[in-house]
Amino acid sequence: MAKETSITNGILKYLKSLPNTWWMKVHGSAFQVAGVPDIMGLLWGHGVGFEVKVPGNKQQPIQVYAAKNITDGGGMCFVVHSVCETRLVVDLIQSHLDKYRGSVEPSRELVRSACEAELKKIKPKRPKKPKQLEGDTPFG
Prior knowledge:
CATH class: Alpha Beta
CATH architecture: 3-Layer(aba) Sandwich
Structural class: alpha+beta
Shape: globular
Helix content: 40-55%
CATH topology: Trna Endonuclease, Chain: A, domain 1
Strand content: 15-25%
Number of domains: 1
Radius of gyration: 18 Å
């Protein structure tokens, strides 16, 4: 399984290849606000944060709190597990921005919620563990 660092580096390489964007890796330390996403940047004028997780890992409560503060402040924040998933999020943001171009600028909340709804449709659900039958032991 890939380490979070290698996933983050791949995502940053992809994001930095996009035109008219700006990205930085956030290096956690005792001198910064806790819970800030791993990658922060500007995607065509919109503030976006990506919290990178190894598949199966979840956000810590402080990270959920920071993500809420970012979205409450008008930005967008996503949990991603791969470069492929990040590309999907970027494509969804782009498609929703394109949909509203020429009319009123869409709210960041509208774009974020639309992207999250699309991601939920395609993310595979984890299979449930089979129930253990009476008499079965974990050692066979």
